[in-house]
Amino acid sequence: MKVFTLVLVMSKSQILLGLKKRGLGEGKELYEESGVVADECDLLQRGIMTMYFSDSEIPFKIHVFQCNNYRGEITETEEMKPQWFGIDHIPYDLMWNEARLWYPVFLSGCPFEASFSYDGKGDIIKHVIHQLP
C-alpha cells in the first residue's frame, strides 16, 4: 500500500487548495508545494482514506490533516498553484471525483474514515464514508 499525507490549510471560512500542474503527489513536503511550513503540533488528523483500483495498482492510504496555523508565504511552485477558496465555493469540478464526497464531511469538523473503489477508467464504483466520534 502506498501511504500519502494530505494537509489542508484552513483560515477562518477559507481553505487553501492547490491546482496541480503536473503529476500526482509524490511525497513532497507542504513547503515544497506551497511555501507553507506547519509544525507537527499544529496538525489535527481528521481522516484516513483508502483507495482501491481495479487495474491491480497498489492501493493508496491517505492520512488527512487540518492545519490552522502555519508560517511562510503562500507561493506558486513548479508543481502547484495554491489559491484560497471560500468553503462554500470549492471548485469540485476541477478536483478528483471523490472530493465532492469527502470534503463536506471534512469541512463539517467530523473525523472520518473513507474507502473508494475505482474502475479501470478512474470512475468511482463503490465508496463508504464513516464519521467517527
Tell me briefly what this model is.
With 133 residues, this protein is mainly β. It is built from two helices and seven strands, in the order ββαβββαββ.
Count of separate structural domains = 1
Q: How is the main sheet built? A: 7 strands, mixed
Distance between the termini: 26 Å
Number of helices: 2
Q: What is the H/E order?
A: EEHEEEHEE
Q: Class in CATH?
A: Alpha Beta
Using only C-alpha atoms, the radius of gyration works out to 15 Å
Describe the protein in words.
GO terms for molecular function: 8-oxo-7,8-dihydroguanosine triphosphate pyrophosphatase activity; metal ion binding. InterPro entries: 8ODP (IPR003563), NUDIX_hydrolase-like_dom_sf (IPR015797). This is Nudix hydrolase domain-containing protein. The protein has 133 residues and is mainly β. It has a single domain, classed as Alpha-Beta Complex (Nucleoside Triphosphate Pyrophosphohydrolase). It is built from two helices and seven strands, in the order E-E-H-E-E-E-H-E-E. Strand 3 and strand 4 form a beta hairpin. The two termini are 26 Å apart. The model has no long low-confidence stretch (mean pLDDT 89).
Please outline the helices and strands.
Blueprint: E1 2-11, E2 14-20, H1 30-34, E3 43-53, E4 60-67, E5 80-86, H2 99-108, E6 112-118, E7 124-131
Parallel strand pairs: 1-4, 3-6
Antiparallel strand pairs: 1-2, 2-5, 3-4, 6-7
Notable features of this structure?
133 residues, 7-stranded mixed beta sheet, 2 helices
